[in-house]
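Human: I wish I could look at a protein chain and see how it folds. This is the protein in question:
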Amino acid sequence: MKVAILAGGVGTRLAEETEVKPKPMVEIGGKPILWHIMQHYAWYGFTEFAIALGYKGDYIKKYLVDYCSLNHNLTVHLGNGKIDLHTSDGISPDWTVHAIDTGQATNTGGRIKRLAPWLQGGTFMLTWGDGVSDVDLVKLLEFHRSHGKLATVTAVRPTARFGRLEIRGHEVVQFTEKPQLGEGWINGAFFVLEPGIFDYIEGDEMQWEREPMERLAKDGQLMAYLHEGFWQCMDTLRDKKLLNDLWERGDAPWKIWG
């Protein structure tokens, strides 16, 4: 099964980083968040990716092209230009990655539509290039296949940014430091989709999270997989610091691979 990753946005709230690189290339623990996302899928056996490029897409292409040489020991034959790769750490991801230019100004729905030729063959997965989670992708897929609808979205309840107060009159009767939200599920991405969803996307200007998802819901074709575990997007420098702190402490919930 193929995995689509949207990696074409500008990431304006991470401007200090994204002036020079696309958002999916902002690093956690010395590796782009895109790498962390792909490692998550690969752990569950999903190793063919179609990445929708846009803003500074050449940066991602260069990273993919240089990945092998930068992560292996090398023997370089200067006479003929031949390069022999030697695995340095016993890890050599057997992934197939299609890096597809989907346009600078294309919206999320349009990017998905443009990936259609690379996602042929039935059911596929989709996520954004800026969020990590410990969602069980096998259970997610099983849930999707159980209901027979066109689309499944992973619903999450993220940790609140500030401490939560429960107040009666003026008395604080309970305080919880940065709790998981007690109510209200949000779109956590990590979709499983059928090819029929392409019929809901009309063109480059269409935002996936608006008309297509709204119409799928109206038609009874959108189901939610409820994920109670870890989920975190990287929208701001504060989010980046949080994720890096978790990684450096050895307490990154999304690191499920060995």
